[in-house]
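Researcher: Structure for this, please.
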Amino acid sequence: MSGKTRCRIAITGIGLVSPNGNSPSEYRNSLLNAVSGIRNIDLRYIGRVHAGVCAFDTLRHQNKRDVRNGTRAGSIAIYCAGEALNDAGIAQDSLVKDRTGVYIGLTEHGNVETENEVYNISRFNYDIKFWNHYHNPRTVLNSPAGEVTIKFGVTGPHYCIGAACAGGNAGLIQGAQQLELGEVDLAIAGGVSESIGTFGIFASFKSQNALAIHDDPTKASRPFDFERNGIVVAEGGCLFIMERLEDAVKRGAKIYCEILGYAMNSDAAHPVLPNAPTQAQCIEKALRKAGLRPQDIDLVSTHGTGTKMGDAQEVQAIKQVFAQCDDSQAPFLNNTKGFIGHAMGAAGALELAGNIPTFSDNLIHPCMNLDNLDQDCEIRKFVTGSPLNAPSIKTIANNSFGMMGINSVVIVGRHEPHLPPNETRTTVIT
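Model: Predicted structure, token format:
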């Protein structure tokens, strides 16, 4: 057994775009009051599908020309970054721009733009003179993060992390690591998704019989429920302002929580099918990095997407990790995708943002549409129906898993102001 010390990382700002809210408070109220953001849309080549659709003011932080020449993912990222900076009390002209980094997790990028361009020139006998001159910068993988740097004049590092549906967590992890290494002093980190703009994603899920179908779109996304029948694709984004705790305290910042631990690993098994044992290993690895035991986790924010195998495998992983906990020690569990659908690369970041307020009010938002728990997903302490007023929530484990067998877990904790900000946490590694 050995000990390793590391600096403490704080989240000091949150900016988000979701199908049921465009600010942390609006989004939180929707989660506590069963407000769905899922509706029907008509999609080219496919027809009517359920989707989590965002409606936000793209001109709040951009002008019309920037919106026209940029991307939907870029507009989402810029809105989230601008709102997060405002929330953190950081003015654009006060940014130390070469010491700020932008790290955005994605599931995919460029499909929307390419599909639209191919469709556009098809109406002109495929004459490439009608191909948009901005196509290349729109479709490079670093585009959404790059659009943020151009908008806010950030000259530090920027890149996007391709981590499938673990992307939101991956962006957070990258931001934390860059702060720990001293590469930057401020990280704008999280995930974004423009997935509802591409028929390819819907078509692929539909061909796999993995696209949710229901008479009522607000009831289509139902992770862990016996009647679940697939995924509802959603767009959205959430970016966090992250700082070393000592710097945040020095400038008098509002501190939402601290990053206690994180982990990523790979199933190395199948491109699509999840694997409970390696998911469990990822949770355990994050616990070790945080220096915590399973019984120290108060809430698990589940990844559950609404697929039969995916939900069941995640429950098996959680049961394996927390098997030794009695009823009083076992964590509560909730899920966000029933409200907004699966926001792909943004999912993990949005789900964490929805649970962070629990540190202040101890209210855990429930799973939406979990009316009849599938016996393959049987586990203790799912929060269903109404919000749960918990005795005390001090730690949250945020699960996000993705295609190609990529797994991620981020553990956050309530900020304890009585600990000196320059006191490093000691992580016990076994």
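Researcher: Any notable elements?
Model: Residues 426-430 have pLDDT under 50 and may be disordered. DSSP finds 14 helices and 17 strands in the chain.
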